[in-house]
Specification:
71 residues, mainly alpha, two-stranded antiparallel ribbon, 2 helices
Length: 71
């Protein structure tokens, strides 16, 4: 199995949100990090946020900083 690079994401959430995340992770027998990953990927799939070939999630809308191509 290939080793995948990971990135660190630090977030602050209210205690009740963390408690809900912990409860969901325990119910699914997952780590907090894996539970967050599953939730984010499910959200992206449900809301049409697609993953590009680099694995970077991209919205179908134009991303800030992109230039329009001139034909």
């Amino acid at each position: 199995m290939a080793v995948t690079k990971t990135e660190v994401v630090s977030i602050r959430v209210p205690p009740d949100v963390k408690a809900a995340l912990v409860a969901a992770a325990e119910k699914e027998r997952r780590s907090l990090a894996t539970m967050v990953e599953v939730m984010v990927l499910e959200y992206c799939k449900a809301h049409g946020v697609v993953q590009g070939r680099t694995g970077i999630a991209q919205s179908p809308r134009r991303i800030r900083g992109e230039r329009k191509s001139v034909a």
